[in-house]
Design brief:
CATH superfamily: Cytochrome c-like domain
CATH class: Mainly Alpha
Strand content: under 5%
Helix content: 25-40%
Radius of gyration: 15 Å
Oligomer: single chain
Distance between the termini: 29 Å
């Protein structure tokens, strides 16, 4: 329990920080097109925007503290990362337990599985987000391409 208490603020800060930090002086990037998605039987079966993910890029995003930062809460087979959280379930072998469509939904909007989750919805509709820094309004945590890259990586974890 003590370990979880120690991790809790780190996990929340690490996952919320990219959305709420104001980058003074930076010009906001143009907003990418948002690709609508449909849930069918706890899965998003179609790739966002018909995009194809690249597992190597997804692994990089999952371990990057300023992008996906999955390692803040999950244990992943990314040994070069010095810290792996234990708030979320370990993801080694996740592809043997979940379909690709289910993996996509977990990353896009975990609240569809667990409404009480602290995991951010990495591709939730911008209208569903709140307390967003002005220069980040209308954007998702990750782009559709980054989502597909992470899903491609997770799909390799059998």
């Amino acid at each position: 329990m003590r370990a979880m208490r120690a991790l809790w603020p780190t996990c929340l800060i690490a996952t919320i920080l990219p959305l709420t930090v104001s980058f003074a002086g930076d010009v906001a990037e143009p907003k990418e097109s948002y690709f609508d998605w449909q849930v069918d039987n706890y899965a998003i079966n179609e790739p966002l925007g018909g995009l194809t993910g690249v597992a190597a890029r997804g692994r990089e995003i999952a371990g990057d503290q300023l992008r996906g930062n999955c390692v803040a809460c999950h244990q992943l087979p990314i040994p070069e990362q010095p810290f792996h959280g234990n708030l979320g379930p370990p993801l080694a072998g996740v592809a043997s337990r979940q379909t690709v469509g289910m993996l996509r939904l977990h990353v896009v909007d975990q609240t569809r599985f667990n409404p009480e989750t602290v995991m951010p919805g990495y591709y939730r509709r911008a209208a569903q987000l709140n307390r967003v820094a002005r220069e980040l309004e209308g954007r998702t945590f990750l782009t559709a391409q980054e989502i597909e890259d992470v899903v491609a990586y997770l799909a390799t974890l059998k």
